[in-house]
Write a structure and sequence with these properties.
The complex is a heterodimer of chains A (151) and B (455).
Chain A lengths: L5 H13 L4 E6 L2 E6 L36 E4 L4 E4 L15 E2 L4 E7 L2 E6 L4 E6 L6 E2 L4 E7 L2
Antiparallel strand pairs in A: 1-2, 3-10, 4-6, 4-9, 5-8, 6-7, 8-10
Chain B lengths: L4 E4 L3 H13 L3 E7 L6 H5 L2 E6 L10 H10 L4 E3 L9 H10 L2 E2 L4 H8 L1 H10 L14 H11 L3 E5 L10 E2 L2 H19 L4 E5 L4 E11 L4 E13 L2 E7 L6 H16 L4 E11 L4 E8 L6 H8 L3 H9 L16 E8 L1 E2 L5 E2 L2 E2 L2 E3 L6 E5 L6 E2 L6 E9 L2 H14 L1 E3 L5 H7 L3 H4 L7 H6 L9
Parallel strand pairs in B: 1-2, 1-4, 2-3, 4-5
Antiparallel strand pairs in B: 6-7, 6-8, 9-10, 9-12, 10-11, 11-14, 12-13, 14-21, 15-16, 17-20, 18-22, 19-21
Classes of the chains: A mainly beta (151), B alpha+beta (455).
Chain lengths: 151, 455
Amino acid sequence: MSEIKPRDVEALLEIFETSDWREMKLKLDGLELFVSKTPGARPAAFVEAAPPAPVAAAPAAKPGGGTTPDHWVSVRAPNLGTFYRAPKPGAPPFVKVGQHVEPTTEVCLIEVMKLFTTVFAGVAGTVRQVLVEDTELVEFDQPLVLIEPDA
Amino acid sequence: MGLRRVLIANRGEIALRVVRAAKSLGLETVLAASAADRDSLAAREADRVVVLGPAPARASYLNADLVVHAAKATGCDALHPGYGFLSERAALARLCEEQGVAFVGPTSQSIEAVGDKLAARRLARAAGVAMTPGSAKLESAEAALAFAREIGFPVVTKASAGGGGRGMVVARDARALVEGFERAAQEAREAFGDGTLYLERYVERARHVEVQVVGLGDGRVLHFGERDCSMQRRYQKMIEEAPAAALPAATRARLHKAAVDLLASIKYRNAGTVEFLYDVECDKFYFMEVNARIQVEHPVSEMISGADLITLQLEVAGGVAPALAQRDISAHGHAVEARILAEDPARGFLPSPGRVTRWRPPHGEGVRVDSAMFEGALVPPYYDSMIAKLIVHAPDRPRAVARLREALAAFEVEGVATNLPLLREVTAHPDFLDNRLDTRWLENVFLPHYGQPRE
């Protein structure tokens, strides 16, 4: 991520506009971005964006009844596909709840027409929740795994 | 109906149109959208929405694997590609065939047979369809020059791999041809990844006419009359009409037969369009190309024939031969469509994405608006700029044109710049009113004076 162009910011804003998120916080290189649909809202401390994608979108909003702590990070689907927790049927899953992960730890696979994409944790921390059942269809940007980042 | 659930892999008005047509047949609908379109009107009306990927088309609408995976994983037994995006990719049709998903379109073989323009010309020749004198594939500017001397100038270079004006250079003499050849090959390479060119005689004053067909896949091909799409800017259609009022009746009948013969020869299945150039002065038409998909301008054919081409597409894809014979299809009255684009004609047709703050489309007898827009909707910057199609129908061309002008005057859009002011002036021009048009009229006659104060 060497250079952020106005077009990229525009694209991010479009995604925010069309999403049901209330706020978006982003920190990339020299850029800090905070947008909110609540008038007068102000940014809390910025969450460090982890270098190897997927997008570690800041507060993981949706699942449950808002019981998720704000600083937990959700690993999201890079595109639509089938979610696999393990490298092959019957094998132990890539990660289990309570396990510590590094940014480069593999957490799951997303399969599209027999092509498998590895999804990495993107952040150092502890796996708190796996949000999707094995072999379920996931959509682009869907939260897959919740990670509590190391303090 | 042989189908149960259809995936719609497109956006905008055509996605909405297909969702509604499928529902009218009792089919379940799954919309495969990009992240930018997850709250679109089509998304609201579909039974289910799946988000393929982020907004850019490359990562969503143009990824055949993603689209077919979405169809399989949501239990769809058919896939409608709409127009644009993947609609004419043989690879998508083939993937559907392999995965047992009915592709709502031609077979992958047919798409290949008509997709390459040189191959399509061979088909047309075999079916006895008239063509402008044209060459085979050309290796060099020298070969092009030799051929041009044989058939006579002016000539036009064309890309074998695609259309839309890319790779097209009109040359009126040898020097212009030699100079333009490499530029055209380069343009074709950039646009289609294939710089193969061929040469055709250039018709100076031509109309663009095309025939709407639906093939049943068994050699039977129905036609729904012809359209005149001569009002173009940079080979992009702006106003389309049905029927082509400039055609004599005998020529019209021959045109229909040529289109049907061409596609019957490959047992074409589903909706398609055969495009021709019509030389007004000589009353001759020449085959141009086949579009193996439903087209943007299909509604004008629906208005004059009373057919619903999208439901027909779904029925044919479901293996149900429609209870319709050629003798049941006849043309009534005249229909005109104007494409409403979020582009600013006052600023060089600059695309103007943004939030639509006011949206009041016209309505009334004989007025149809195909659009997925609404007040508060966002025109995203990633895709085609068309935001609506305004279609009118009346007993004859003068009354259809009058109705179009009233509807254009009543159409209110705020928040994004549109081509409505341009369309209002074009449709008031004496040449349009008298139907004295050709494919270069807008650029050569109208636009040079557009926006300048009247004397």
